[in-house]
Every structure is written in C-alpha cells, then in structure tokens.
Design a protein that fits this description.
- There is one protein chain.
- 40% of the residues lie in helices and 27% in strands.
- The protein is built from 11 helices and 20 strands.
- Strands 2, 6, 7, 8, 9, 10 and 14 form a 7-stranded mixed β-sheet that branches. A 7-stranded antiparallel β-sheet has the order 3-12-11-15-16-5-4.
- β18 and β19 form a beta hairpin.
- The C terminus is likely disordered.
C-alpha cells in the first residue's frame, strides 16, 4: 500500500520491441536496471508454511508454451490484503491497492476486472496500455458511485506473452522482472519519489528500499483522469522467466536476492513460494503478491517443425511431380514405339519397348506373323530374340514381309538347286547305259557279218 503524490506528467510514449541484447544493458531511457549474477550463492533462506496462512491465495497453471504460478499474502504487519493478481493466460498482472480498509482492495479488484476485459489477446502493448487506462477510469468511477471510497487507487503492472514477444503496461511501483541467461533485469520503471531520486543520482537503489518516502508514488490508477500507462514490448525466448510483483516483495528483498532465488528454483511455484517467504522473513511489512511465468516454448520449435514438414511435403511434391512427368514421358514413348521379336516360335510385332516397371510390362503383342524363326538366318534369330526396334507398325509389317519374301526366295533357290541336281543325275544314268550297250552291239554286228 502506498501514498500518492501528484507529479507533473512526463511525455507519453512507447518503445518498440526491445531485443534481448539491448535489455541486458542499462537502457538510455532509464527504465531498465540490470543486476549481475553473484559468483557465490547466498545461504539457504528459512521458509514459511504459506498455505496455512490466512489472507492469501495461490494459483498454478501451464500449457504447451507457458508455465506459471501466482501467490498473494497479507504480510506480517497489515491487517488485510489490498493486492489483487491477474492470471488469464496469456495475460498476467499485479495490482497493489491503496486507500485503507475496504478501499484499496476494491480499487485493485476493479482494476484487475477491467484490465482482464479490455486487454488484447495478442502482444500489442498499445492496446494493453489502453486497457490499463480504462481501468483507471473504472477505479475513478467506482469511487464516485460508491463501489469504493474517494481517494482509493492502485498500481498496475501487467503483460501479455505471445511467442517471442511480450507486451508490457505499467503504472506505479509494482514491478516486472525478466530473468534471461541467469541475469535478472527489471524492465519497469517505478513511478515513485524515491525512483526519481535514484534517477537523479541522489540515492542508490538499496537506499531507496529503506527511504522514509519510499511509499510515495507519483502515478497510480484512480488519482488522475488523464493518467497514462507506460507501455512497450520486448523480445523473449525459451528459458526466460518473468516475475511480476507488488512492492511488498521489492521493498523487502533486494534485486540481488530476487535474482538468486529466481536462478536457483526449478519451477514457477517453487520460485513464487520462496520469493513470498523471503519477503515475510525480511519483515513482511506490506502485502506481497508474486507471479512467476516460465517460457517453456517460444514457438520457434513449432515453426521449425512446420518448416521441416513443409520442406518434406515440398520434396515429396517435387518427387511426385518428377514421377508423374516420368510416367507421362514413358507413356508417350511406349505409345509411339514399335519392335519386332519372337512370338511362339514365329516373328511377332509389338507396340512399346521391351522390359517392365514394377512388374508391369511396357509392351504388348499386336500381331503374330506366319514367319517361322527357324526359317530365318541364325544372326537374324539372335536379333529378334533381343527385339529389333522399328519406327512404326508399317515398318514392322514391311520388315516381316521382307523376312517372308527372303524365306520364299531362299526356299525357291533351294528347290531350284535340288531340281537341277536331280536333272543332272538323271541325264548321267541314260548315257552310261547307252555306252555299255554300244560296243557290245558293235561287236555283235561285226561278228554277224
């Protein structure tokens, strides 16, 4: 709970997305402070059984991209809890109420309800800032209509986490930290009197935690109709941890202590419980609320997985296209190719090419001629066994006809040769018989004479 002091309004504006490298150094605008990781871990802190304490609340959740835990505690001094936290994935926030009994908690409840109903579903810091400004109007109206009390108000620090981007909107001295690669970064700038002293170099951050005027804040919801929210966006990635808290934590535990706990705890609920417990052990002078959100997946793996699937599908598409093109070309070749070969001992005419693909023949027998392979020369038979390619069916038939004519001519020659040989054999036999009878006949004639 804090007091409000009116302050001249500063320039309104928003930064663009802040890259990780940039947020790890002091920002020129002064809203980022960096705390280096300690060389040696602090001793183990005593813990408190938080679940048994009254006036508190806890919430735990997770999905495929984020894991979170939230806890609020009344503290060890205050009589009631004026803090409210907002957990509505991907929207998270803390509102620290002020205004006394039955007012601060009303203001923070109105703010949480209004921010939840107006916040964007995506990481749009402009729209998130507008939601916080709408909450300011709602708190003012609540005081006017009697829902709360005049003078009530609250802080608001909230964020929307989407993939590799986080939108932030902030008013007051609640804080948002980012733990990246073991280093804690405060990404919000307190709207408080002591923060202005720190910015001016008059006091240190550690001195600000115990300064007598540390409860005076210069901007809050419910105090000024023209109030505006700081809003900006920054880059996040897998493994980052976001901590949102009321000043009940930051005023009790230094940033170095928050970093040590954030680095050394495995789960959001362990981190949340240890941070709240540390604030109570340190004195618990105020209500303390803490939300811890771990970025389990920033969407890059899903993008890479989708890219791999698209690449595989693209490759399969290319392969399928090549196969189809090859099939078309093969079909054209088959439909326009002819050859002659052996068919059941005769010469056949085939359409296509010899061979098969996946057991499917690439040719078909069109017709079988009467030309017998045995009647052809041995060299031609060997050629036909492997198939003789021709340009068309007409050329195939012409070739078969030439084979038939060749066979007929060879057969005719053979018949003529055989006939001639038979004629010569017949002529020789007649002459011999005449020769044998001639002399005998001549001798017979001479003897007769």
């Amino acid at each position: 709970m804090s007091d409000v002091e009116e302050h001249p309004a500063q320039g309104r504006g928003s930064t663009g997305p802040i890259p990780i490298a940039a947020r790890m150094a002091h920002a020129a605008s002064g809203f980022v402070q960096v705390h280096g990781r300690h060389a040696a871990a602090e001793p183990a802190r005593p813990t408190i059984a938080l679940d048994a304490r009254p006036g508190g609340g806890v919430e735990i959740g997770a999905d495929t991209r984020l894991s979170w835990a939230a806890r609020t505690d009344v503290g060890l001094v205050r009589g009631h809890n004026e803090d409210s936290f907002l957990v509505s994935n991907p929207l998270f926030g803390v509102c620290d109420g002020m205004g006394g009994h039955a007012a601060g908690e009303v203001a923070s409840a109105i703010a949480v309800r209004t921010i939840s109903s107006h916040a964007p579903a995506s990481a749009d810091d402009g729209l998130l800032g507008a939601a916080v400004e709408a909450a300011n109007e709602a708190v003012i109206k609540g005081a006017e209509t009697g829902e709360g009390k005049p003078g009530m108000g609250c802080t608001a620090s909230c964020c929307v986490i989407e993939g590799t981007r986080m939108a932030v909107a902030h008013v007051g001295d609640s804080r948002i930290y980012l733990l990246h690669a073991g280093t804690l970064v405060r990404i919000t700038h307190d709207h408080s009197y002591v923060e202005e002293l720190v910015d001016a170099g008059e006091i240190t951050a550690d001195e600000a935690r115990v300064h007598p005027s540390r409860s005076i804040i210069t901007r809050a919801l419910g105090s000024d109709p023209d109030m505006y929210a700081d809003h900006f966006s920054l880059d996040i990635e897998r493994g980052d941890r976001i901590i949102i808290c009321s000043d009940g934590l930051s005023s009790m535990v230094p940033d170095s202590g928050i970093e040590t706990i954030a680095v050394s705890t495995a789960s959001p609920i362990d981190c949340t419980d240890q941070l709240v417990s540390a604030a109570l052990v340190a004195g618990g002078h105020d209500n303390v609320s803490v939300i811890v959100v771990d970025v389990v997946s920033d969407g890059r793996e899903e993008q890479r997985s989708r890219a791999r699937k698209h690449a595989i599908l693209g490759s399969l598409g290319v392969i399928a296209g090549v196969v189809v093109a090859a099939a078309v070309v093969l079909a054209l070749i088959v439909n326009n190719s002819w050859y002659i070969g052996a068919s059941a001992g005769n010469v056949g005419i085939y359409k296509g090419i010899r061979g098969s693909v996946l057991g499917i023949p690439l040719s078909e027998l069109v017709e079988t001629s009467s030309v017998s392979l045995q009647d052809l020369p041995e060299a031609t038979q060997h050629q036909l066994a492997g198939g003789i390619t021709v340009d068309s069916v007409d050329k195939a038939r012409a070739t078969v006809s030439a084979y038939a004519q060749q066979i007929e001519e060879e057969q005719a020659k053979a018949q003529k040769a055989a006939s001639d040989a038979q004629s010569e054999s017949t002529d020789g036999s007649v002459g011999s018989e005449a020769g044998d009878s001639g002399p005998e006949a001549a001798q017979t004639q001479q003897g007769g004479e």
